[in-house]
Amino acid sequence: MSFIEMENVTFSYRSEDKAIDDVTLSIEEGEWVSILGHNGSGKSTLSKLLVGLLKAQAGTIRVDGIVLDEATVHDVRERIGIVFQNPDNQFVGVNVRDDIAFGLENLQVPRKEMIERIETYAKKVDMFEFLNKEPQQLSGGQKQRVAIAGILAMRTDVIIFDEATAMLDPKGKRRVLEYMRQLNEEGTTVITITHEMKEAVLSDRIVVLKDGAVLKDGPSKDILKDRETLEQSNLELLLPLEVMHRLEEKSLGDERIKEHLWALSLNG
Amino acid sequence: MGIEFERVNYQYTGIDEKGYLALADVNLSIEKTGEFVALIGETGSGKTTLAQHMNALLTPSEGRVRIFGLKISKETVKGGKLRLNPIRQQVGLVFQFPEYQLFEETVEKDIAFGPKNFGVSDAEAKERAKKAIRSVGLDESYLERSPFNLSGGEKKRVSIAGILAMEPDVLILDEPTSGLDPLGRNGLLEVFSRIHRELDKSVVIITHDMNTVYEYANRVLVMREGLLVYDGDPLKLFSRRNVENWNLNMPDVLKLQRELEERFSLTLNTWPRSRGELLKALEEVLS
User: Fold this and answer.
1) Residue of chain A nearest B260, judged by CA positions
2) Which residues of A48-79 are buried (b: 16+ CB within 10 A; e: fewer)?
3) What is the pairing mode between strands A80-83 and A158-162?
4) Which candidate from A140, A257, A260 shows the least CB-CB separation from B43?
5) Chain B CB contacts of A163 below 8 Å
6) Min CA distance, A107 vs chain B (Å)?
7) pLDDT of B140-177, one tens digit each?
8) Which value, in Å, is the radius of gyration of the alpha carbons in chain B?
């Protein structure tokens, strides 16, 4: 049994079109998986279903063997944390300390331990010096790090990054990607929701979503060069791979160049 | 005569009365036509503050901005007698996530709202809506649709059409492609490029995407802690030795060109700016 199991899950918003159409997907404990898809492919809907923010009309979702429903949704949220795209919309506290505390209060963590966890995780994302700052004194990247600290402090088994780097500048992006890698190395299951191949390629496995259904699911190094799948789903081939394909088509360049282009692609 | 900044300082004042200098001694001038300017810099570096001075949404704390000849300074704006409406029409500013600001029942009404506000007749506003929707690469059938049933990329296009319908001379776009997938992003950038080429308007685009800067802009402005630290050609910017200190990424095309040239002792005949140009240049040198 996998840690997360989605079985024939279907979901529609008010309209007739299915946002998620009969999706079956499992994610193992400790995996780093990217859900890759164009705008409107259903990837954010999928993440909201996983944390019970939306309720599937058909199918079953199991987290660590527990079937997700109204009775278990709070237990599931203690296991799966989620960081969203817009750093402004998820800052709920009056200051950084308060914001990180929010999830812990919900978990009824004892006060002394709460203070310890807030400080530990604020340090982890380099926001310890900012504990008393208010949100308007922080940049987007800093607010996003606070959101991450809040989720880390809850010590969930899984963290979903739902386009969590989309609104950040290059430096902010790099840091968040670095946290994903670190967390996964420390054993957290990481799910990255993105339309950027550059980000998806950093994970072990990529699930390509199109029109609410799974188009492809496999190791990143296979999906990465699957030109047909990427074209079908409005996604871009990484530049070094596009060059590699072109050279192969025209029988140009030697093996060394191709090998190097491949190595560059794997680094995103 | 376009937009000119002369020794502009802008101070935000917090609740605690402690100020924060968002713009420090900025001098620059943007021509009325023919420019495609990228405005870049880290979050909090002053990009949006700078852009908001370009259509007089903000008034300099010190110094002056001249917008099509109209002088905007603390002194001239005092008393509220200066008519800023013409400027808002001449310099169209598209905010970040403009799609959140759509509100009418139909796309046509949404696009016509701006021009009507500036005193354009109903019939003329409808004509402009038709023209504007085509300029952003959507067909006229969209005019009858509800803006709320469109995709993210389409919503962005409709909001940009709303600004175009006011027939501004200069178009300023604050991170217009953020949140869009590659197809939506490239499509929208083509729209801006066409507006720039065919309608001969100056375009200023705020972005974090260095590929956009390198491929589209003929001039780049770099903001850092309120200072304008670079104003010039994009290729020269990315060739500077200290560019990494400014926390800017290298454009993918330039990065790969250099990587391949150094490692495999190649020399391309050009400086390709786009994927297509790079592929062509590599083919030439390898065949």
Assistant:
1) A257
2) bbbbbebebeebebbbbeeebeeeeeeebbeb
3) parallel
4) A140
5) 179
6) 32
7) 999 999 998 887 778 889 999 999 999 999 999 999 98
8) 20
Closest residue in B to A250 (Cα–Cα): B283
Q: Do A246 and B279 touch (CB under 8 A)?
A: yes
- Containing A7, the helix (H) or strand (E) segment is strand A4-11
| Residue written as token pair 């996983």 | A50
| Dist CA A197 CA B181 (whole Å) | 10
Residue A2 burial (CB count, 10 A): 15
- Model confidence, pTM: 0.88
Task: Mark which residues 247-276 of B lie under 8 Å from A by CB.
Answer: 247-249, 252-253, 256, 259-260, 263-264, 275
H-helix or E-strand containing B189?
Answer: helix B182-198
Kindly state the average pLDDT of the residues B51-75: 95
Q: Answer for the pair A30, A64: CB distance below 8 angstroms, yes or no.
A: no
| Dihedral sign from CA coordinates of B164, B166, B169, B172 | negative
The reply to whether residue B182 touches residue A163, judged by beta carbons under 8 angstroms, is no
Separation between Cα atoms, residue B221 and residue B228, nearest integer Å: 7
Q: Does A171 touch chain B (CB under 8 A)?
A: yes
ipTM: 0.84
Q: Residues of chain A with pLDDT > 70: what percent? A: 99
A215-248 pLDDT per residue, tens: 999 999 999 999 999 999 989 899 999 999 999 9
User: Count of CB contacts below 8 A, A vs B?
Assistant: 81
Asked if residues A2 and A189 have their Cβ atoms less than 8 Å apart, the reply is no
Give the residue from A70, A89, A96, A67 showing the smallest Cα distance to A7.
A67
CB–CB of B51/B93 below 8 Å?
yes
- Give the nearest chain A residue to B42 (CA atoms): A169
Assess contact for B169 and B177: CB atoms under 8 A: no
